[in-house]
Amino acid sequence: MWFEAMIMLLVYILYIILMYFNPRISKWAIAKVDEFREKHGVLIKHENVDLIHEKSMEGSYKSTAVSDYHESSFVGNSRENSLEGNKRENEETKDNSSDDEEYESPFEIPKSLWKRTLWLMFLPVSTLMHLSIPDCRKTTSISCGKMKIEWRRLYILTFVLSVCWIAGLSYVMVWMITVIGDTWEIPDTVMGLTFLAAGTSIPDALSSLFVARNGYGDMAISNSIGSNIFDILLCLGLPWLLKTTIPSDGNSSPSTITVSSKSLIFTAIALAASVIFIVGSIAINGWKLDIKYGLLCVLVYALFMSFSILYELNIFVDINPAMCPRD
């Protein structure tokens, strides 16, 4: 019903408000905890380490540390050393990010065979993007009559057109996945759990990969959790609200949405448990993101997908109706 979708949107608005006031709330909570501990004679030792990454002698990344309250062997014992080290690393990250933002022509042929193959595969898409989206990384300007407009000032237009492209490609992807699932007689819920979920989460995975390599472990974790909150509350709640409030198909009354999957409770419980698992496993791993934690996450994801698919295919319990026979 419409009020259920409205509740989801209101919860998302409340989430945004809490995130906006999160520094103040965190500061107040830490002050109250410190006051409580001092009153009961508990020794307090805070060591707020921002995002740190440890490099080997060759410059490769070993692990990415998340903000914590524990001592780190490569940070030092004083907060001053931590702040100085973070400042130097932030400067290095800015220099690296400025180098990464240099404009590169999509028509420049790479040298290696593998990169040249990938370049040839994505050349049609790159050409469409190059012709339809202004590249705000360019340092030059364009002439529009007597006016000269710098490419860097067109970042808002670049953002809007990029969102339009993402929306169009997402529509085509959902359409193709629906057709493929119907052709192979695969339930829609299984296609949504596998191919559709993977396709929509690849941008999130790549962004988390890039920020983790630059030492921003907190941002990578926040992205994984925040993107799911955005998808569930807004990306699901807003279309749900529009569908249930706007009359369609010539009917004067709004329509309702029926969810055919009866294993939704299991999926929702697993989603809530995954958040607890992320926080708990990072704490057990010493607030660091390393290869052991990555392998553990992949293993847990494989187990979750296996059980979810088996539930949707009625292997354990007969919960979903059989697909209609094809002529």
Task: Please describe the structure with a list of short key phrases separated by commas or semicolons.
327 residues, mainly alpha, two-stranded antiparallel sheet, 62% helix, globular
Structure description:
- The radius of gyration is 25 Å and the shape is globular.
- The protein has 327 residues and is mainly alpha-helical.
- The chain has a 3-stranded antiparallel β-sheet. A two-stranded antiparallel ribbon has the order 3-4.
- Helix 1 runs antiparallel to helix 9 and helix 10 packs antiparallel against helix 11.
- The chain is built from 11 helices and 5 strands; from the N terminus they run ααββαααββαααααβα.
- Helix content is 62%, strand content 6%.
